[in-house]
């Protein structure tokens, strides 16, 4: 029997499915989704086996379960589907923003932006680390953070080390929650963040660190955390957290990951 012909479109089809599977795996890694996925695989394989063995009762029962599987998947995986769409939308928007910035650069060198002053953030984290003052700062990158700002108190003040430390002072009415930062401006304080649902992270991490991870899973931001218990400085990006960084490492992370917008 001759082998079927293999065309370019077949290779493209396999490549697209592989990319889609990789994205889904990245989103599902470390969550209960993988367990649910394997349960669905087991149910499907069992249904097919019952059909082959002509076990009518079991086949009908499992067939009924599989017939409503699509609706069940949408309900069960609703948070993951939302997260996947946010992931795709963020990457697409970032690509468009980067292309638009290159076009603006080519058109007019006057569009060059003034660099961000990272020193107030680094100095504030150093001082809060020494005094074991808990802190959580969210740095805007390319996408909007309006939905985070709406959960807190708007400030729109120029950044300074003293202002950051005052906001996180334990007796300050704004110390609880996150501070949202864009470039050299503090946009808002006492903001509420989504908490990660991953089960593969350190169980000793508190709500502040889990929120720092969770917000970077859903939005294109960088989180900087100062632990209230140990004074350790950490930062999170794209769902990954880096613990116990030095001020020099923090400055390098800010310089590497922060994207100054042209808004």
Any low-confidence stretches, pLDDT <50, length ≥5?
Answer: 93-113
Spatial order of strands in the largest sheet: 2-4-3-1-5-6-7
Do you know the CATH architecture of one domain? 3-Layer(aba) Sandwich
| Shape summary | elongated
**Averaging pLDDT over every residue, what do you get?**
79
**Quaternary status:** single chain
Q: What is the CATH class name of one domain?
A: Alpha Beta
Secondary-structure-based class equals alpha+beta
Give helix % range: 40-55%
CATH superfamily membership of one domain: DNA integrity scanning protein, DisA, N-terminal domain
Distance between the termini: 62 Å
CATH topology of one domain: YojJ-like (1
Order of H and E elements: HHHHHHEHEHEEHEEEH
- Please tally the β strands and state the result: 7
Query: How large is the count of helical segments?
Result: 10
**Beta-strand percent range:** 5-15%
Task: Give a quick precis of the structure.
The chain has about 260 residues and is α+β, with helices and mostly antiparallel strands.
Q: What report would you give on this structure?
A:
This protein has a 7-stranded mixed β-sheet with strand order 2-4-3-1-5-6-7, sandwiched between helices. The model is unreliable at 93-113 (pLDDT under 50). The longest helix is centred in the middle third of the chain and has 30 residues, at 78-107. The protein is elongated and about 75 Å long. The protein has a domain at 119-257: DNA integrity scanning protein, DisA, N-terminal domain (YojJ-like (1, 3-Layer(aba) Sandwich), CATH 3.40.1700.10. It contains 10 helices and 7 strands. The chain has helices spanning 8-28, 33-52, 56-67, 69-76, 78-107, 119-131, 146-149, 161-168, 207-218, 247-257; strands at 135-140, 153-158, 178-182, 185-191, 221-226, 233-237, 240-242.
